[in-house]
Amino acid sequence: MEPMQMALPVTLPDDETFSSYFGGEQSLEVTHLKSAFAKREAQFQFTYLCGLADSGKSHLLYATCVYAQELGLSTMLLSLREVLHYGPEMLDGLDALDVVCIDDMQLVAGNESWEKALFNFYNRFNEPGKLLVVAADLLPNMLNLFLPDLESRLTWGTTFQIRSMSDDDKAEALVKRAKMRGLELSDDCSRFLLTRLSRDMRALLDVLDKLDHASMAAQRKLTIPFIKSTLGL
What we know:
The chain is of the alpha/beta class. The protein has helices spanning 28-39, 57-70, 80-83, 112-125, 148-154, 167-180, 187-196, 201-218, 224-231; strands spanning 45-50, 75-79, 99-103, 131-136, 158-161.
């Protein structure tokens, strides 16, 4: 299988980049990931991101790939949730890339074939010029991995434990994302969305996208009555 550079949407200026990360560009995790690009020429760089749902770890993986492409590097974001059923052959050829990000590592814990394939990929990829970022909901020693050697590899680099976003964080993130689109979303409106809709951040951003289009089409500002009408609440 020939590895392909990940195709990224370019229609929205506020896509999942380091600048739109809710923790901010000056956060320790973003600062580290950016610096890893410069250090990778001297030695292999590995980062492990640990956090529960809505912690922003998947956002950081996506942002890492966006940043890599901006630097002209080849990259792939592999969501194990999406490719698990295809088998570990999905890893074939990825060691030819510069930057690889792997999400949802916890889903292959206890799967011997996947664990062995990931262990072998790690060893092949481990060379100067390469950057690997892995994300999971638990620390390596809590994943109940079948291979002790894989657990050991996952602890070799820098680990960040990222807290889940609070409702205040999500409200602030919605206002920030709206502003990056040139859309004014008041604190009251963002709070309204949080109280009436799913608190899943990805779902909330999809709703914001819908409101953005509706606002532009109707030439209306975002108000609670307009949001109710548009979303049928």
